Every structure is written in C-alpha cells, then in structure tokens.
Amino acid sequence: MNYKVAVIPGDGIGPEIVREARKVLDKVGQKYGHEFTYQELLMGGCSIDAYGEPLTEETLEAAKASDSVLLGAVGGNVGQSNWYQLPPDKRPEAGLLKIRKGLELYANIRPAVLFDELSGACPLKPELTEGGFDFVVMRELTGGLYFGDRKTVEENGVKKAIDTLTYDENEIRRIAKWGFDVAMKRGKKVCSVDKANVLDSSRLWRSVVAKDYPEVELTHMLVDNCAMQLVRDPKQFDVILTENMFGDILSDEASMVTGSIGMLSSASLGATKLGLYEPSHGSAPDLAGQDKANPIATILSAAMMLRYSFDLEKEADAIENAVKQVLKDGYRTIDIMDEGKTQVGTIQMGDLIAERI
Question: I need a labelling partner for 81 at 20 to 30 A (CA). Which of 101, 205, 208, 273 fits?
Fold first, then answer.
C-alpha cells in the first residue's frame, strides 16, 4: 500500500523530531511492505517568513488532498520573535487553529501512558502506578465554551463578561462515536465525564452518550471526581470521553502524571480517516538545532496515524513496542534522563527505535 502523508515540520525543534518520525515510518514500510510518500508543507512561523501568513490556502488544500498529516510544532519565543508583534490571527499558532477547522477535525485523542521504565518521573506514589498505566482522553474539539458566543458588556458602570456554553446532540453523538470506536481498539471501557448535576449541556451530554456498543463498558463520572481519580487511581481508566473545556483541563492533568510531556502524542480527527497527528509539546526553540529534543512523542504520534488513519494495527504496535524496548534497554534523551541510564540525542534515539522495528 502507498500512503500519501502531508508533513509539516514547523518551527523550533519541529523539523528535527519529524525527521526521526519519518525515519521510523520508513522502517515500518520496509518491514511490512508499505510505501509512505511525503509532501513537505510550511505552517507557523516559517510560513509567515515565506508567505506572510501562518497557513496559506494552498497548504491547506494540499493537506486536504493527503491521506493524513504529520505535524512537528509551531511557534517561537513570545518575547523574542517578531512573529508575536503581528495581530493574533497572523501569529504562528493561528495556523494550527485554521488547519483544524479547515480539515473539520472535531475529536482530539491524547494518550496518557506511563511506561514502567519511566515510573521514577511520575509524581504519584509508586504504589499507585506500579506496572504503569495507559489511558486516553477523548476531547471534543470544536464546541462548548471555546466556540460559543462571547461578549463583554457594561451594566450600571460594571463590566460583565458573558461566555456561552452550547452543544447540540449531533455534536455530542459524533464525538461519542469516536470514543467508543477508540475503546474498541483498546480495553473496551469508556468513562464519560460531565457536570450533569449542574449544567444543562452536561445533562444533554449524558443522555446522548448512550451505550450503542454492547461490547464496551460505559460509566459516567462528574468532572471534579474525575480530576481526583486521575491522581488517586489512574489505572482505572481506559477512554475518558468529555467536552472541550473539561478535556483541555483533564488532558493537561493527565500529561503531568505521566512525568514528561516529551512522551505524549496526540491526534485530531473528524468524520473521515484524514487526521492531524502531532506531539503534545511545543516547539522548544531554545533546544532547536542542538540534537537534544525528545522525538518519542512525534514517533508515537506516527504510530497513532498508522492505527487510526490507516488501520495498520500491527505496524502501530511495532512502533510502540520498539519505543518500550529502547527505554527498557536504558536509553534516554535529556528530558527523561535518570541515574545509570545512557543519554542519547534526537538522532540516535530515532535510530535506536528504528532498529527495533
């Protein structure tokens, strides 16, 4: 099979970590009889420098024409880059919002995996995390408070801000379907998180998230309890399904309990197989060009691309198992370095993972 991948290296460490993900994908193609054809595109600060805007229509159309999109990172140092002297809609991060909207990506999947080999980096007590954990946060990406009507008014000399939280049943149903579909590829458990004891939107959410998948165990949990349970017993979760703002907060909490954001992949998906895959971390411009960046989050994002866009389960497993083996063999980039381990750079980490495919 031939797969056409739009590659957006972006800014900062983006080109370095994307290069290593491509190296691993090519090894997968060699081992399993696939061919990955790459088209490099500009987005973010590098696009501003070249074209005067963070995402051109030509780049967006090229992304739409691909089978999937692999992204590094966009942006720079806010206090040092001229990019941040521009209006907000012309800054690097505006390109990311535009491509998500243009590709109609409404579902964000962010895995939270604690590898047993990295248990020392987790801030939780060892007895809570022994054996590691592996769950995902499935976040609705284009609705809720972030996309509702908002305004600031003045009443009787007092300023008042109004943000509107809205969801319709179709928006809820489509993200719920993604949550159940992902659970079917994992441990077949969905925990739907809401605030149904207070919010009408959450009561609608709970009524729509029905158990249409008899093979999947469905539970409901209030968001404040979920925040507590993530640090009390993270191993209980498989798929956390939730709305936009709750998902934003819970996925950040989940990233903290894994110990290093350099290990966290993510995927943004919609109604088709076309997805946008990227590490959860930023562009880290201070590390750019120094062979210090951790490429594992981007490599694991490539594994997610194989699983969710191309339905290549065993190939995705091969990448994830290779990452685990490299960590088991004691190799670490600087962000996850521990006593007695062997420190390696970006390029060598990519080589080591590719060798173990």
Answer: 101
